Automatic annotation (TrEMBL), chain A:
<dbReference type="InterPro" id="IPR003033">
    <property type="entry name" value="SCP2_sterol-bd_dom"/>
</dbReference>
<feature type="domain" description="SCP2">
    <location>
        <begin position="14"/>
        <end position="105"/>
    </location>
</feature>
<dbReference type="Pfam" id="PF02036">
    <property type="entry name" value="SCP2"/>
</dbReference>
<protein>
    <submittedName>
        <fullName>SCP-2 sterol transfer family protein</fullName>
    </submittedName>
</protein>
<dbReference type="InterPro" id="IPR036527">
    <property type="entry name" value="SCP2_sterol-bd_dom_sf"/>
</dbReference>
TrEMBL record, chain B:
<dbReference type="InterPro" id="IPR032856">
    <property type="entry name" value="GDE_N_bis"/>
</dbReference>
<feature type="domain" description="Putative glycogen debranching enzyme N-terminal">
    <location>
        <begin position="10"/>
        <end position="192"/>
    </location>
</feature>
<dbReference type="InterPro" id="IPR008928">
    <property type="entry name" value="6-hairpin_glycosidase_sf"/>
</dbReference>
<protein>
    <submittedName>
        <fullName>Glycogen debranching enzyme (Alpha-1,6-glucosidase)</fullName>
    </submittedName>
</protein>
<feature type="domain" description="Mannosylglycerate hydrolase MGH1-like glycoside hydrolase">
    <location>
        <begin position="337"/>
        <end position="592"/>
    </location>
</feature>
<dbReference type="Pfam" id="PF14742">
    <property type="entry name" value="GDE_N_bis"/>
</dbReference>
<dbReference type="Pfam" id="PF22422">
    <property type="entry name" value="MGH1-like_GH"/>
</dbReference>
<dbReference type="InterPro" id="IPR054491">
    <property type="entry name" value="MGH1-like_GH"/>
</dbReference>
<dbReference type="InterPro" id="IPR012341">
    <property type="entry name" value="6hp_glycosidase-like_sf"/>
</dbReference>
């Protein structure tokens, strides 16, 4: 079985382009530390074009987290900005890249959105 | 809240609020301290000499980032005949630095024990504001040989204050001390450095490499001089308007704030001391006010708000795709999700106003590149208006918070709990829709249509937006007009009934252009009529409404920023005299506050008090109050970008004399505007 983090990155790689990142370029490395072991995910963004590898290369921004927290971020159970303020997630390098990529994370699964007083067909 | 005898200095969101001696001794009712990133880093900072507290002879606010205190030993209860002078000079700029100078005026040598009590409770700004102190983490103090470290730890969340001194000091758990021998006329000084750290695992600071301006005093001074030099010059015959303008430009410099994610570029924060952070609504409205004078703030504000635009449903944060944020915070309560400000999206006006600001900015600057850069964000904002804000399905923007615990009940600018009431004083249910927001939505569509046609190459979308805007205007004029009053309702309730209270909100409708031409006259007469106009300005709520209270936060006080948009709206519909009446009332009020308009002042009639009564807990300086004189000057001079040029059509009251504004920046380069008071106002004596 593939974990949520792997699914998240594989999905990004498969998509190949993300309009929310159309103005963003740079490289982010996610270092997921568990004991002595670190899993690396490398995300390369070129004006919205995405490429994911598992290389441990130099990057503009390095994000550090434990794998469980990161799994909760990509499923919407945890919020990345709050995690960053708490110090549970660390960032070195260009913080702006993280704030842009963070917007790709989903909201909490139990969030329902606007309370409409009517039924509407959404386009 | 901060008392008027407190002294405040700041740089970005690092600021000090202290007593007039320079001491900090925080209590729940006296929220003094050194604050940074929404956390208090010093709650005690008390200087004694030979065990005695000091007495203030005077203090100077030198610049917004520095102040100086002249002190003598002993209290002021007896004749001061001191043989010692103590000078505390301090500045913020990244860290907090204090230079302590002691002079012996005696003919004899003295031995002095100089001590600073230092402590921190690391309270979150929200805990200070609401007077709750219930820390879940652990406080620690480490006295080292060359520094004192005060810290707070909760899980990986760590904040530290590190104090060091150029002259060797003895550090202990409660502060630090010096033993000094001074010969007659000898002087002693030391530089004390207080650094604030937001430490992550591995010792990295959250703010590493990010500063609003240079951190050094000289860099701050240089930055301020450059800021002032770049702004247009305003000269006025009587000096009052130009003095108020200069105060505003300096305060605006102080209120610039660099969010962590902007790499050092600045946007206006909302206000000192509680709101030194990014607010969608406040930042956008301030940018609109100051566009003719400081256009670059608009560019950074639009960019950062666009970059943090909502992308998903998050009920805790009231986030939706396309929604522009309301408030961002960096403190402990945001970090641990005890408050939703990471960021919080619960505002319904920031999103349409985002579109309005982009269009207005382009008209002044000619910066087409930014309009193209933010096309996707604008389209998302417009989708939010139609898809997610229309909770009732009748074509209006409504609000109802999903975060019922810590979210905002009222998501319009009048955001206190009782700001929206029926004429009988009861409060409507949810969802609610307030009138001014429908005006903003109309304006956003009209302006987006222009951008779509001229810059996005999408005439079809432009046609659609214009059609929608026209339909909205027609619908609005049908559903919101209070026929027997001759004005627009404050709000609609969930059943679609009018909340027919008379309020200042109708002034914003003129600014947005949603008012039918044949109704504008009636609206204008209400705004300068006796129920709304006090002689100083337009009250938030009209006299005679059940909840009217001249010192009710949103129920009767006068908000300068509100008045600046009302005046702009009056001018837009051709009511130059009414606009000038409000402008001169507010500018007169400003002179009572040394040119620094407070957030709000009392709605008492001008004849009753003779001077404007400051609202007791108001923030000052506050960004949109600081921007107010600038928008009023724009309005009175009739400055409008027109087909690539700057049109000037001044309509000043007689008493204002001659006013000139030099070097107004824009797509025309820099031009000057001159005006002379010719309007004979009679409303002021009403």
């Amino acid at each position: 079985m593939v974990d949520a983090t792997t699914r998240f990155f594989e999905d990004l790689d498969r998509r190949g382009y993300e309009p929310l990142l159309a103005k963003t370029s740079g490289t982010l490395r996610f270092d997921l530390h568990e004991g002595a072991q670190t899993t690396h995910w490398m995300l390369q963004i070129d004006r919205g074009r995405l490429e994911v590898t598992q290389e441990d290369r130099e990057a503009d921004t390095v994000v550090g987290s434990d794998p469980r927290l990161f799994g909760d971020l990509v499923t919407g159970d945890e919020n990345a900005i709050a995690a960053l303020l708490r110090g549970d997630m660390t960032v070195s390098g260009d913080l702006r890249l993280v704030l842009q990529v963070e917007r790709l994370f989903p909201g909490p699964a139990d969030s329902r959105g606007p309370h409409r007083a009517f039924q509407r067909e959404m386009s | 809240m901060a008392q008027s005898n407190t002294v405040r200095i700041l740089d970005g969101n690092t600021f000090v609020v202290c007593e007039d001696t320079g001491d900090i001794e925080a209590t729940p009712s006296e929220p003094t301290g050194l604050f940074s990133l929404d956390i208090r880093f010093l709650s005690k900072w008390v200087l004694t000499v030979n065990g005695e507290r000091l007495n203030a002879l005077s203090y100077d606010d030198l610049q917004y980032y520095e102040s100086r205190f002249f002190l003598v030993p002993g209290m002021a209860t007896h004749y001061v005949d001191a043989k010692l002078s103590i000078i505390r000079e301090r500045a913020v700029g990244g860290s907090f630095r204090e230079t302590l100078t002691i002079l012996n005026h005696d003919e004899k040598p003295v031995d002095l024990e100089i001590r600073m009590e230092a402590a921190s409770d690391f309270a979150d700004l929200f805990q200070v504001k609401d007077e709750i102190l219930n820390k879940k983490g652990e406080l620690y103090t480490e006295a080292e040989s060359d520094r004192l470290r005060l810290g707070y730890r909760r899980g990986n969340f760590r904040r530290e204050t590190v104090i060091s001194s150029s002259e060797p000091a003895r550090y202990d758990q409660r502060g630090f001390a010096y033993s000094v021998h001074l010969e007659p006329n000898q002087q002693w000084d030391t530089d004390i450095d207080v650094q604030t750290f937001a430490v992550g695992p591995g010792g990295r600071d959250l703010r590493m490499g990010l500063r609003a301006h240079g951190t050094e005093r000289l860099a701050l001074q240089h930055d301020l001089e450059e800021w002032i030099a770049k702004a247009p010059k305003v000269n006025s015959e009587h000096g009052r308007v130009s003095a108020t303008y200069r105060r505003s430009i300096v305060d605006l410099a102080a209120l610039r704030f660099s969010p962590l994610s902007l790499g050092g570029q600045t946007l206006p924060a909302a206000g000192l001391p509680w709101f030194m952070t990014m607010f969608g609504r406040d930042s956008i409205l301030t940018c609109l006010q100051v566009l003719p004078f400081a256009p670059e703030l608009s560019k950074t504000t639009l960019r950062i708000l666009g970059a943090l635009q909502g992308t998903r449903f998050d009920d805790f944060r009231d986030e939706d795709p396309g929604r522009i944020l309301h408030e961002m915070r960096y403190g402990e309560t945001a970090a641990f999700e005890e408050q939703p400000h990471s960021p919080y999206y619960g505002s319904v006006d920031a999103t349409p106003l985002f579109v309005v600001l982009l269009d207005e900015y382009e008209k002044w600057s000619g910066d087409v590149a930014l309009v193209k850069e933010l096309e996707a964000e604008c389209r998302a904002a417009l989708r939010w208006i139609d898809d997610y804000a229309d909770l009732v399905g009748n074509g209006y923007i409504w609000y109802e918070r999903r975060n019922t615990d810590t979210g905002l009940e009222n998501q319009c600018w009048k955001d206190s709990w009782d700001s929206i009431s029926y004429r009988d004083g009861t409060l409507p249910g949810f969802p609610r829709a307030t009138c001014e927001v429908q005006g903003y939505a109309y304006d956003a569509k009209v302006r987006a249509a222009r951008m779509a046609r001229e810059f996005w190459g999408d005439p079809g979308f432009a046609d659609q937006l214009e059609r929608e805007a026209a339909e909205l205007k027609e619908r609005f004029n049908r559903d919101w007009w209070v026929a027997d009053g001759g004005y627009y309702a404050l709000a609609l309730d969930p059943q679609g009934r009018q909340v027919s209270t008379l309020s200042s909100n109708i002034g914003h409708l003129l600014w947005s252009g949603i008012v039918d031409d044949d109704r504008a006259e009636q609206v204008a007469q209400h705004l300068v009529g006796p129920r709304l106009f006090s002689g100083w300005g337009v009250r938030t709520l009209a006299e005679g409404e059940v909840r009217y209270n001249p010192i009710g936060y949103h129920n009767g006080t006068i908000w300068p920023f509100d008045n600046s948009f009302i005046a702009w709206g009056l001018r837009r519909y051709g009511f130059a005299e009414e606009a000038a009446t409000i402008a001169s009332g507010i500018l007169d009020a400003a002179t009572y506050f040394d040119g620094r308009l407070p957030e709000a002042f009392g709605g008492y009639h001008r004849d009753l008090t003779k001077f404007p009564v400051e609202y007791p807990t108001a923030c000052s300086p506050q960004a949109w109050s600081t921007g107010t004189p600038l928008l009023l000057i724009r309005t009175m001079l009739g400055l409008e970008p027109h087909e690539g040029h700057l049109a000037v059509d001044p309509r000043l009251p007689v008493g204002m004399g001659r006013i000139e504004v030099l070097d107004i920046p824009g797509r025309w380069g820099r031009v000057d505007a001159f005006a002379r008071g010719r309007l004979d106002l009679h409303n002021l004596d009403a």
